[in-house]
Design goal:
The complex is a heterodimer. Helix content of chain A is 77%, strand content 0%. The relative contact order of chain A is 0.14. Chain A is mainly alpha-helical. In chain B, strands 6-7-8-3-9-10 form a six-stranded mixed sheet, with helices on both faces. In chain B, a hairpin with a 2-residue loop joins strand 1 and strand 2. The chains are: A mainly alpha, B alpha+beta.
Chain lengths: 267, 352
């Protein structure tokens, strides 16, 4: 059938177009990192990996990665903790003022991040805290906790709270109910929430610019070096940073799959 | 003979409710209920939605704390014991299966909480699967891949796995299609006969209660208005509420102070009719032809019910009645008038 073949061809074209749209910009960063000029211009006269050698040898490269990494790790820990508790309050229980809480909670997401960053810097000044990577954690949390809360809350839709009563009826104490019923039901939400938290913090620029002080996270460094002192070092560091976060995501996913295999009942 | 022995034919009382009450704000969901449940009984509590039957069973299971009264399990006071400390298990309306677990893990939950070793748990779970007629292969199946009827059986096996002294059922069959429900009703009754455990079943369907129960308690507005065997309730409903619960019955009014009240007179007034009462006549008791009490009625509707025929009738007074006759009753065409009759003995009298 020619009609079916047309549709197959169109679908292939469509998929290719989407992938090109998503990946061509990323590829261009990789290409830019292999130049030896201070100007972004294609095609290169000389193809070289000098920028990568320089990046790997430079202390700054590892410092900015470490700062971003630790900010993201703390953000994940606090965001998951607060987000889980928030989700329970947000979606599981009905209480006076819940709808107000639900609206107030999502408000920071709609706030433009540069404005939020400035507001946070002003508040930090007001309470006398010097900006550093620690204050950047707080700033990221203000924006990321609502998102993580929403992501985890989604798990409560379609969740039958009678499961908790059933567990209790079958002899589980309060802690066992949480461990055996509530947390396993929330776990996929907690996992995606943690992933979101890490990636959103890892790549955040507008909040970090205002609140990280003398400590420079990866995105801030990339931004300022692109703006003022560009060299192929910038795209090469960007590629390294992307690889690191991709590696983290992939290894986490592998870990999860392995854990699921091990836990699966035999027979 | 004490009243407790009276209802149980000598069997000991396992659960005793003494003035049990539960209020939500100003609403009395359960209002001062006293009831003795003998060991091994299949008791069904029937009531419309909002009658408090679900709250009552939740009080018995320990999922709600009563606002008043006491609860005794074999004469030990358990009023304040939480659900996990009571030797009872509930099959929930939503079934409340653990969605992220397999059938086997669901069944083994109570044993896992008690610290039973895994091999022993598995052994027992497989026994329970055969008790509820599920193949052993289901042990490893995720509950999300089970059909509605299979989920019912898993919920039942899970409740049995905790070795409960009493099983509670909170309308577990209400969301199931008619044919499967009928099958499961019979299976549940058989399971009760085989295991001889005490079952307390909640439903809004008196028909379901009639099929399964040893004894029925009917609830209205937080109170129990009648208890009795299915035959007792069928034969002598305590009031119009209970009678109307049985589906299509004829309820006729005899006006207070006027024996031979307008409505009833059209059909015929039996001599022994007390004043100011309601009379219930079952559709099958209203027969075609002359009899002790006869009236001329016009057919307004005719419905074939397979082996029987139901006709809707109107009396000259305007009162409407229903009669059910065996066969197809070809002479009862719409618009024709016929003599219908019933015997005074077929009337169930109700004061309210």
């Amino acid at each position: 059938m020619t009609g079916a073949r047309h549709i197959t061809a169109l679908r292939a074209l469509w998929v290719t177009a989407i992938l090109a749209f998503l990946y061509v910009p990323i590829m261009s960063v990789v290409l830019a990192s292999m130049a030896n000029t201070r100007y972004m211009r294609f095609p290169h006269k000389v193809w070289t990996l000098d920028a990568y050698r320089e990046a790997i040898a430079s202390f700054t490269t590892w410092q900015i990665h470490a700062i971003s990494f630790w900010i993201a790790v703390y953000v994940v820990i606090f965001a998951v903790l607060l987000g889980t508790l928030g989700a329970v309050a947000f979606a599981r229980f009905d209480w006076r003022g819940r709808s107000v809480f639900q609206r107030l909670l999502v408000l920071p997401i709609f706030f433009p991040q540069p404005v939020l960053g400035l507001a946070l810097l002003l508040s930090l000044n007001a309470v006398g805290l010097a900006p550093s990577w620690k204050t950047a954690i707080v700033a990221h949390l203000v924006w990321i906790v609502p998102i993580v809360t929403l992501v985890i809350s989604i798990r409560f839709f379609g969740y039958d709270p009678a499961q908790e009563e059933a567990a209790r009826d079958l002899g589980a104490n309060r802690w066992q109910v949480i461990r055996e019923v509530t947390l396993p039901a929330l776990w996929p939400g907690i996992f995606s929430g943690a992933l979101f938290a890490f990636l959103l913090s890892w790549s955040n620029l507008p909040l970090s610019v205002y609140t990280s002080g003398p400590d420079t996270p990866l995105p801030v460094w990339l931004f300022s070096r692109t703006a003022t002192n560009y060299s192929p070092l910038v795209p090469s560091v960007a590629v390294i940073g992307t690889l690191i976060s991709a590696l983290l995501v992939v290894s986490l996913a592998l870990l999860l799959i392995t854990a699921r295999r091990l836990r699966a009942p035999r027979g | 003979m004490t009243p407790a022995e009276d209802v149980s034919n000598g069997r000991p009382v396992i659960l005793s409710l003494a003035g049990l009450s539960k209020s939500f704000g100003s609403l009395k969901a359960v209002d001062d209920i006293s009831l003795d449940i003998p060991e091994g009984e299949f008791l069904t509590i029937v009531g419309p939605s909002g009658s408090g039957k679900s709250t009552l069973v939740r009080l018995l299971a320990g999922l709600e704390t009563p606002s008043g009264g006491d609860l005794f399990l074999r004469e030990a006071r358990i009023t304040d014991h939480p659900a996990n400390k009571r030797p009872t298990a509930m099959v929930f309306q939503s079934l409340a299966l653990f969605d992220h677990r397999t059938v086997g893990q669901n069944i083994e939950f109570a044993m896992k909480m008690k610290g039973v070793p895994a091999a022993q748990r598995r052994q027992r779970a497989l026994e329970l699967l055969s008790l509820v007629r599920l193949p052993e292969a289901y042990y490893t199946r995720p509950v999300t891949q089970c059909s509605g009827g299979e989920r019912q059986r898993v919920a039942l096996a899970r409740a049995f796995a905790s070795e409960p002294e009493i099983l509670f059922f909170d309308e577990p069959l209400s969301a199931i299609d008619y044919r499967l429900r009928k099958t499961l009703e019979v299976e549940l009754k058989e399971l009760h006969q085989r295991t001889r455990r005490t079952f307390v079943y909640i439903t809004h369907s008196l028909e379901e209660a009639m099929v399964m129960s040893d004894r029925i308690a009917i609830m209205q507005d937080g109170r129990i208005v009648q208890t009795g065997t299915p035959a007792e309730i069928y034969g002598a409903p305590a009031n119009r509420f209970v009678a109307s619960f049985m589906g299509e019955v004829n309820i006729l009014t005899v006006e207070r102070g006027a024996a031979g009240g307008a409505t009833f007179a059209e059909i015929g007034q039996p001599a022994e009719a007390p004043r100011g009462a309601y009379a219930m006549i079952r559709p099958e008791a209203l027969a075609l032809g002359d009899g002790p009490v006869t009236a001329q009625l016009e057919v307004t509707q005719r419905l074939l019910l397979g082996s029987r025929t139901q006709v809707h009738l109107v009396a000259p007074s305007g009162a409407t009645l229903i009669s059910e006759l065996p066969g197809s009753a070809p002479e009862l065409q719409i618009g024709t008038r016929h003599a219908f009759s019933f015997a005074p003995a077929d009337i169930a009298w109700m004061e309210t």
